Amino acid sequence: MRLPRHLPNLLSLFRILMVPLLVVVLLTKFENKEFVGLGVFLLASLTDLLDGWVARRFGLVTRLGKLLDPAADKILTAAAFISLVELNPGLVPAWMVVAIISRELAVSALRSFAAAEHVVIGASLAGKVKTFVQVIAISLLIIYNQLGEFSHLAPLSLWASLVVTVYSGVEYFVRFARLIIAGEPETKKRESPEGPPASSTVA
User: Fold this and answer.
1) Which of 85, 175, 181, 201 sees the fewest Cβ atoms within 10 Å?
2) CATH topology for 7-190?
3) Which residue ranges make up each domain of the chain?
4) 8 Å CB contact between 30 and 52
5) 156 burial level (CB within 10 Å; 0-12, 13-18, 19+)
6) What are the respective helix, strand and coil percentages of the chain, to the nearest 5?
């Protein structure tokens, strides 16, 4: 089956374009907005699974995609968390969101430095768990007012997201910062500058 070469990148762009819609839905008062917001967020998150799977399954991995996919993830996550702070600062403390977003920016900086050294930093298990926990946390926080007796799960998931996010960020720096600064990263020995093999980008 032959698919358009830039389909994964189009899915990533679609995810970015859904961000303004998500923000408007979350910050506008209308009936059942929580479920509409949840639907928009989950649809955007689904494209994250699709673009990576399509790219690897059909050999459509591109250098643009390696940059665009994680950027789209971080834009979506940051926009959702910031909107939730505005919506309910008592439920979603600003300092927790600052910590989460700071981790994302720090790892992005590490990726950029590694890319300049022809190193592809693949997603670790902690990074993948971080993404999953963030999606769960944001989803529960969006529908917090509809959870009833299970409303306590929303703040608990936020704390879990903070812990996993910070841990995964520290793990990336422990694993790669020293190697990159030393100039002899193990991944560089396995991958050539002309075209590193397809791998998951940092989550």
Assistant:
1) 181
2) Four Helix Bundle (Hemerythrin (Met), subunit A) (1.20.120)
3) 7-190
4) no
5) exposed
6) 75, 0, 25
CB 121 within 8 A of CB 111: yes
- Give the pTM: 0.82
For residue 20, give the amino acid letter: P
Note down pLDDT in tens along the chain; length 203 residues. Answer: 566 667 888 888 999 999 999 999 999 999 999 999 999 999 999 988 887 777 777 777 777 777 778 888 899 999 999 999 999 999 999 999 999 999 999 988 887 777 777 777 766 788 889 999 999 999 999 999 999 999 999 999 999 999 999 999 998 888 876 666 665 544 444 443 434 444 445 56
SS3 readout for 12-29: HHHHHHHHHHHHHHHHCC
